[in-house]
Specification:
There is one protein chain. By secondary structure, the protein is mainly β. The chain is built from no helices and eleven strands. Strands 2, 4, 5, 6, 9, 10 and 11 form a seven-stranded mixed sheet that branches. A four-stranded antiparallel sheet has the order 1-3-8-7, with no helix packed on it. The relative contact order is 0.33.
């Protein structure tokens, strides 16, 4: 499984960004987005079980961030609206084949290289 993220960049508070993760070699399981803010531990943002409506969104992201998927394109998206400076960090896409992994980082086997999001 290979994961390639894109869509990061700079934004001003209140603006939006959409992150994209293309997964090759994954047919079933959970796709998740995680972030690591400067000086902090990596934390879960949102996850989705491929081909279903099963989702989990971290409390801080509820109402502003949306995870979605396009199975035909093997792509998972993270739409981030009303961005705040606290949302700054490196965002990682991750995959957990064959199971519903929620936002349990230990359950994710494959990780992308990360994409920087800066809100200021």
């Amino acid at each position: 499984v290979q994961l390639v993220e894109s869509g990061g960049g700079s934004a001003q508070p209140g603006e939006s960004l959409r992150l994209t993760c293309v997964a090759s070699g994954l047919t079933d399981g959970t796709m998740g987005w995680f972030r690591q803010a400067p000086g902090k531990a990596r934390e879960g943002v949102a996850s989705v079980y491929l081909g279903t409506s099963l989702r989990m969104v971290a409390h801080f992201a509820t109402g502003r961030f949306t995870i979605s998927q396009d199975i035909s394109k093997k792509t998972t998206y993270l739409q981030m609206n009303s961005l705040e400076p606290d949302n700054t960090g490196v965002y990682y896409c991750a995959a957990s084949p064959g199971q519903w992994a929620e936002l349990n980082q230990r359950s994710y086997t494959y990780w992308g290289q990360g994409t920087q999001v800066t809100v200021s």
